UniProtKB/TrEMBL annotation:
Pfam families: NAM
Provenance organism: Abrus precatorius (Indian licorice)
GO biological process, one term: regulation of DNA-templated transcription
Spans annotated as Disordered: 163-199
Ranges of biased composition (kind: Basic and acidic residues): 170-186
Domain NAC: 7-157
Organism placement in taxonomy: Eukaryota, Viridiplantae, Streptophyta, Embryophyta, Tracheophyta
Name of the protein this chain belongs to: NAC domain-containing protein 2-like
Subcellular location: Nucleus
UniProt superkingdom: Eukaryota
InterPro entries documented for this protein: NAC-dom (IPR003441), NAC_dom_sf (IPR036093)
C-alpha cells in the first residue's frame, strides 16, 4: 500500500504525540481532509494485533489506524476492550497532550490473548489517542458508539510480528486449569471402602501402658499369654533403684515419727517442713 501513496524515497513516518493529535486526529474528527492518507481506517477491535500490520497503509515496526470506539454497556462511558481472540488492558496513567490546555489524551494498553481476566499477556502494545473535553453522552437510543474516531499506534516490544500463542501451549493451559477445577469424587459404593485391618493389628491395639507408683518406669501389659515376655536385667535394676524407707531412716540415724514432728517442736501445732514431703509417700509395709 505504501507504493500507492507515491511517497518520496527515504520517507519515514515518525510523528510526535502532539503532531498525531493536532494534525491528524483533530482533522479527522472535524471531517477535514488530510494531505497524505497514510493512516488506514478500520474497526481495530475486530482483529488480533498480529493481523493489523497487513491492514495498515504504511509502517515497518509500528502501524497507525483510525478506529471507532464502542461502549461496553449501553448507558455507560466505559469502552469495550474486547478484540479478536483476546482483549486490550489499560496500563499506566493517562497522559494529556497539548499545552497549555490539553487537546487530547494518550492511553497505553497491552493485548492479552484469551478470555478476561485469565488471558495470556503478549508483547503487543497500543497507544490510543482520543480528544479531550468531548461530549460522550448517548446521542442515539440503543447506540453503543462512544467515539467516532480515535487514533491508535500499534507495535510489538520485540520489534517482530509475533503470532498468537501456539495451540499446544493453549491446550496445556486448558488441561491444567481443568485439573485444578476438577473436584474429588466421593465414592459411595460398598466396594470403595478400604479393607478392615488385619487381626494382628487389632490385637496390637489391646496393649496398654500401666503405671505403678513404686516403679520408676511404666510397664507394658498385653493380652498375650506368652511366657517369654521377661523384663531385662537392665530394666529390673532400674525398677528396683527406688530407695527404701529403711535406707532413709538409716541415713537420718533415727526413726521418723509423724506425731513427734508436730508435738515436740518449738512451734506448737505448726507442721514440720519435711512433713509435707513425707505425707505424699506411703510405706510399702
Amino acid at each position: 500500500m505504501a507504493s500507492e501513496l507515491q511517497l518520496p524515497p527515504g520517507f519515514r513516518f515518525h510523528p510526535t504525540d502532539e503532531e498525531l493529535v493536532m494534525h491528524y486526529l483533530c482533522r479527522k474528527c472535524a471531517s477535514q481532509p488530510i494531505a497524505v492518507p497514510i493512516i488506514a481506517e478500520i474497526d481495530l477491535y475486530k482483529y488480533d494485533p498480529w493481523d493489523l500490520p497487513g491492514l495498515a497503509t504504511y509502517g515497518e515496526k509500528e502501524w497507525y489506524f483510525f478506529s471507532p470506539r464502542d461502549r461496553k454497556y449501553p448507558n455507560g462511558s466505559r469502552p469495550n476492550r474486547a478484540a479478536g481472540t483476546g482483549y486490550w488492558k489499560a496500563t499506566g496513567a493517562d497522559k494529556p497532550i497539548g499545552n497549555p490546555k490539553p487537546v487530547g489524551i494518550k492511553k497505553a494498553l497491552v493485548f492479552y490473548s484469551g478470555k478476561a481476566p485469565k488471558g495470556d499477556k503478549t508483547n503487543w502494545i497500543m497507544h490510543e489517542y482520543r480528544l479531550a473535553d468531548v461530549d460522550r453522552s448517548v446521542r442515539k437510543k440503543n447506540s453503543l458508539r462512544l467515539d467516532d474516531w480515535v487514533l491508535c499506534r500499534i507495535y510489538n516490544k520485540k520489534g517482530t510480528i509475533e503470532k498468537q500463542p501456539s495451540n499446544d501451549a493453549v491446550s496445556r493451559k486448558t488441561e491444567s486449569s481443568e485439573i485444578e477445577d476438577k473436584k474429588p469424587e466421593i465414592l459411595t459404593r460398598s466396594g470403595a471402602f478400604p479393607p478392615p485391618p488385619p487381626p494382628q493389628a487389632t490385637a496390637a491395639m489391646t496393649d496398654y501402658l500401666y503405671f505403678d507408683p513404686s516403679d520408676s518406669i511404666p510397664k507394658l501389659h498385653t493380652d498375650s499369654s506368652c511366657s517369654e515376655q521377661v523384663v531385662s536385667p537392665e530394666l529390673a535394676s532400674e525398677v528396683q533403684s527406688e530407695p527404701k524407707w529403711s535406707e532413709w531412716e538409716k541415713n537420718l540415724e533415727f526413726s521418723y515419727n509423724y506425731v513427734d514432728a508436730t508435738l515436740n517442736n518449738g512451734f506448737g501445732n505448726h507442721m514440720s517442713p519435711l512433713q509435707d514431703m513425707f505425707m505424699y509417700y506411703t510405706k510399702p509395709y
